[in-house]
Amino acid sequence: MSPVSAVGTASVASEHPLRRALRSGRVAVGGSILLVLLFCAVAAPLIAPYDPNEQDLLNALKGPFWTDTAAPGFLLGTDNLGRDTLSRLIYGTRVALFVAVCAAVGTMLFGTALALLAGYFGGVVDWLISRAVDLWMSFPPVVLSLILIVGFGVGIGNVILAIILVDWTRFCRVVRSEVLVIRRQNYVDAARLSGFSHLRTMLREVLPAAAPLIITLMSLEMGIAVIVEAILSFVGMSVEASIPAWGVMIADARNYMYQSAWGLILPILAIVTTVLAFNLLGDGLRRTFDARLQQH
Amino acid sequence: MSGEILGIVLRRIAVAIPLMLLVSILVFVVLRLIPADPVAMSVPPNATNEDIEALRREMGLHLPIMHQYAIWLGHILQGDLGKSIAFGQPVFTLIGQSLPATIELAVFGALFATAIGLPGGILLFRLRGRPSEQVVDVGSTLMMSIPEFLWALFLILVFGVAFNLLPFAGRLPPDMTISKVTGFLLLDCLLTGNLTAFLEAIRHMLLPALALALGTVPLIMRLLRSSLLDVIGEDYVTMARLRGVPERRVINRHALRNALLPTLSLMGVQFGFLFGGTLLVEVIYSYPGLGNLMVEAVRNTDLPIIQGAALVFALAVLTINLVVDVVYIVVNPKLRRAR
What we know:
The structure holds two protein chains of two kinds.
Chain A: H1 3-12, H2 17-23, H3 25-42, H4 44-47, H5 85-121, H6 123-137, H7 141-152, H8 156-183, H9 186-193, H10 198-234, H11 246-254, H12 262-289, H13 291-295
Helix pairs in contact in A: 3-5, 3-12, 5-6, 5-8, 5-10, 5-12, 6-8, 7-8, 8-10, 9-10, 10-11, 10-12, 11-12
Chain B: H1 2-32, H2 38-42, H3 49-58, H4 65-77, H5 91-126, H6 131-144, H7 148-162, H8 185-191, H9 195-232, H10 235-242, H11 247-284, H12 290-300, H13 303-331, H14 333-338
């Protein structure tokens, strides 16, 4: 970093971390995209021009308005059953964001709880939890989520459960090593010496110190959850057929890509934009919290 | 020295065996949760309750689950993974037919990922502190947001549909067959001296391998950059600079050699993930490998195949990690000196 910006960093170091995060371009861009997506998800019935499942077979496989094959009334075209692409994209944000938020919260709770136990107590507890992580890491995540969903059956709740049961290791590994460092700090010993219980020390002294890392990981996990849901939708193992999801749109459009490539491109763009927003947010947060990166 | 390495390898294998056992328990238990009844799926619709009960006993489903597992494990150890419900063939044969294709694809994907990722990481590092760093940085974040299955579709749209440059279905043109020697298509083409088929096979492999690689490239780039950032402050780098060694040489000769080691060990994990990425890429490219077999089995609820494929995937990841660890030990001069 240039000397000028290094001085700038030093002067904002005392600022509240949240305000510092908001000043980062990445956080601002990622956050804005997510707000728009959130609005689409919440207001879907109000802003979508059609019911996402309404078929118009006479207007099937139309292109978006800027193409030759466009049909009036269908801004972004239609799929093979004449369903409005724009409406399906808007309703698709519901599944994507719902899965992203629930799965990330669940993963965070489960992974962090185990990481706290492992890092704080060490010994046998740490050994057991670390071996469980090793066991989980022997599966490619996609393979594990597939067998879990086969075991549980399809449905949005099971998709979320599967993601939590696959991705908790991501939190557990990273947060555990952070807790190992925090655990050796003097203030943690001080808390114990002044009579805090283990639980209270963990939640009041150790956890807050790991919070910046946890928040960053959560943002990245939401992006991963969106991808996993899309993959499961794509192979037909996610939500029921009547619920519009981006992965389902991709799977449908793949069979007609010669007639209408846009049907395939648009949901891909929707997924990439959403994941990019979560990654920008996570990356921006990491940069604000990580002192080492600021020095460089 | 080789004796010591052998010792380490054996110790690692000793750790991997109980892990593999636990993997098999996990696979077995999870797939027993299945809501569909495996018996109901394999009897004709006019079967009586007695028929179903008889089949249940024949399949051993009336036994306690640990007992069922023991029987299953015993069969696996004898190389019997059961029979596919949909194909009626032994799962072992089906996996044996499809695994070589997946290995070829994953190896090419890993090669591409390394060939693009390492220079990319150096580029990312060289640009640090310059205005263009931001552009490349956001570019790498964008690339990180595109998983391999979206790359796969995107590459088909660009190189297959729009420009019609490369094939994107299967491993060979439909009218071309090649006699099977090892099951590894590229190897078989060379062994039988069929150069045309070899080139065709490579052409068919380019897009899926590239899709796999692109999902891993930004991670490798970032790993290498942060390893380079770690070593660039070391004394020997400063000393080299003080001696007037040009910056390019400082990076290539001094920093890179030391930064590659941690990158290498983390790349092992990435290649494990990359192997899992073949699943969707194979489906999208109609590539007759293990991933395609497994997804097909998931759609048909063909439990024996799902179990077998999941075990093979886990075994592959453990093997990749083992190989990377051994390579790490062999090339790490610090560990070499310690012995």
